């Protein structure tokens, strides 16, 4: 098998046999054995500079990032930052970035530890999750958009990630492992009755400028609520005092 797109992305495309097992009518015929080879891993990711530049100053509240490599995430983090990015006083565009990664517990912990960014949510899923990372990111972004538009302060937990196939039973993260991910800035998901759902949407932000543990921007809903309040204040002031001057 050859991934259609080059680079790191193809490394997280799941390839498996008989996902639903005997109970689902998926078994190999007697005497037939099939082994899925590890394959050759791709390398590299597209530079996002042109894509970010094309965004200009258009508002995007929910940004789904299909790439989870360090360079791609940092490029988006620069675009979102509080000093000169979308959250700066000059631009006042706001928004939030959602990306996803599949891997082992240690791989996801290492990924989360790379970042400390309040405008980025990195969701981690089991290595055996039967949906590629870019689709998981898109689904989570869409679900968050629906929930947050209704109420930016209400948690997104239990949100269904429609048509996303979770890892099979026996290969899912335990409660302890999910807590470990959350402690390292990785958002989590869980499975209920075969349906993959949002467990908690957190950001990768964990420490303040002093390197001290800080939960100010732990939950993504905090950032969405802040954006709502800032926009509301601007709307009230500019509507009531649009062309006023100080006497």
From TrEMBL:
It comes from the Bacteria. InterPro entries: Phage_sheath_subtilisin (IPR035089). Belongs to the myoviridae tail sheath protein family. Residues 42-204 form the Tail sheath protein subtilisin-like domain. This is Phage tail protein. It comes from Salmonella enterica.
């Amino acid at each position: 098998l050859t991934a259609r797109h080059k680079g790191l992305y193809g490394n997280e495309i799941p390839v498996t046999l008989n996902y639903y097992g005997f109970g689902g009518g998926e078994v190999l015929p007697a005497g037939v054995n099939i082994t899925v080879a590890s394959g050759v891993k791709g390398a590299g990711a597209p530079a996002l500079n042109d894509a970010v530049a094309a965004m200009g100053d258009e508002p995007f509240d929910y940004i789904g990032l299909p790439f989870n490599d360090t360079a791609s995430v940092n490029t988006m983090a620069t675009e979102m930052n509080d000093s000169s990015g979308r959250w700066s006083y000059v631009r006042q565009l706001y928004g939030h970035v959602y990306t996803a990664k599949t891997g082992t517990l240690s791989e996801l912990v290492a990924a989360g530890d790379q970042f400390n960014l309040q405008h980025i949510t990195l969701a981690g899923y089991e290595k055996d999750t039967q949906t590629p990372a870019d689709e998981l990111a898109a689904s989570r972004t869409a679900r968050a958009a629906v929930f947050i538009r209704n109420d930016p302060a209400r948690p997104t937990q239990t949100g269904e990630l429609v048509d996303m196939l979770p890892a099979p039973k026996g290969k899912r993260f335990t409660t302890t492992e999910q807590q470990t991910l959350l402690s390292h800035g990785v958002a989590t998901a869980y499975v209920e009755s075969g349906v993959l759902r949002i467990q908690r949407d957190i950001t990768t932000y964990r420490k303040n400028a002093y390197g001290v543990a800080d939960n100010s921007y732990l939950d993504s809903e905090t950032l969405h609520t802040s954006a709502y309040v800032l926009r509301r204040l601007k709307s009230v002031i500019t509507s009531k005092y649009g062309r006023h001057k100080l006497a």
